[in-house]
Amino acid sequence: MTQDELKQQVGRAAANYVLSNVAHGAVLGVGTGSTVNFFIDEVAAFKDRFRGAVSSSNASTARLRAHGFEVLELNDIETLPVYVDGADEIDAAGHMIKGGGGALTREKIVAMVAQTFVCIVDESKRVDLLGAFPLPVEVIPMASAAIARRFVDLDGQPTLRVAKDGSTFVTDNGNWVLDVHGLRIPDPVGLEAEVNNWPGVVTVGLFARRGANISLLGTKEGVHRID
Ligand code: 5RP
């Protein structure tokens, strides 16, 4: 199976999960990325089962609307039973690195509100130790060099993310992203707390304090569910 076929397989499994576990009329929390795109496409046929969706990025909002989903503001929602999102790495405890698509801040906000975080990944994302994937960190632009120096002190190699056209990548929130290479992260909860405290950091792409509750792992042998 190709990686896209594995992603489609978990996207379909996540659609089945929400159809079986989320009450009619509930609001769906929707993440960002190529795996989530498969989920959106799979669940779209059942959109009338939901009051609408809360989205974590402009890209997912556009895809949801193209399928006819109503996209609601998080401020208008009090409860969100399920949030479905991908990850760049996930460990056995459900700690994740996220933000490869640059949507980490809104993803963390929506995940905070959700009762259950369902992480959908192909098996290449499953790791024993986080850090081989460069850690994304959304920063206020004027703080980027100062924050980069702090990561160098931790033996990381930060690079400023560049968009496809060669310009500096700008998030949906108007900020920049540092991708920090070369980190080994044995204590993701501790590093998340530390980096969160640095002035100028908007969001660190470690989702450890609030990790995934359920992982759906796409493998050649089928989808494995890890609770
Ligand atoms: C976006 C994310 C994505 O969930 C993560 O990058 C995985 O993406 P993909 O499903 O395309 O591999 O965190 O900010």
UniProtKB/TrEMBL annotation:
Gene3D superfamilies in alphabetical order: 3.30.70.260, 3.40.50.1360
CDD domains: RPI_A
EC main group: isomerase
Catalytic center residues: 107 (proton acceptor)
Pathway: Carbohydrate degradation; pentose phosphate pathway; D-ribose 5-phosphate from D-ribulose 5-phosphate (non-oxidative stage): step 1/1
Gene designation per UniProt: rpiA
Subunit description: Homodimer.
Reaction equation(s) it catalyzes: aldehydo-D-ribose 5-phosphate = D-ribulose 5-phosphate
Keyword Iron attached: no
Record protein name field: Ribose-5-phosphate isomerase A
Single GO BP term: pentose-phosphate shunt, non-oxidative branch
Gene Ontology molecular functions: ribose-5-phosphate isomerase activity
Job of this protein: Catalyzes the reversible conversion of ribose-5-phosphate to ribulose 5-phosphate.
Alphabetized SUPFAM superfamilies for the sequence: D-ribose-5-phosphate isomerase (RpiA), lid domain, NagB/RpiA/CoA transferase-like
Protein family per UniProt: Belongs to the ribose 5-phosphate isomerase family.
Signal sequence range: none
Residues engaged in binding substrate: 32-35, 85-88, 98-101, 125
EC number: 5.3.1.6
One Pfam family this sequence matches: Rib_5-P_isom_A
Assigned GO CC terms: cytosol
Listed InterPro entries: NagB/RpiA_transferase-like, Ribose5P_isomerase_typA_subgr, Ribose5P_isomerase_type_A
PANTHER family: RIBOSE-5-PHOSPHATE ISOMERASE
UniProt organism field: Pararobbsia silviterrae
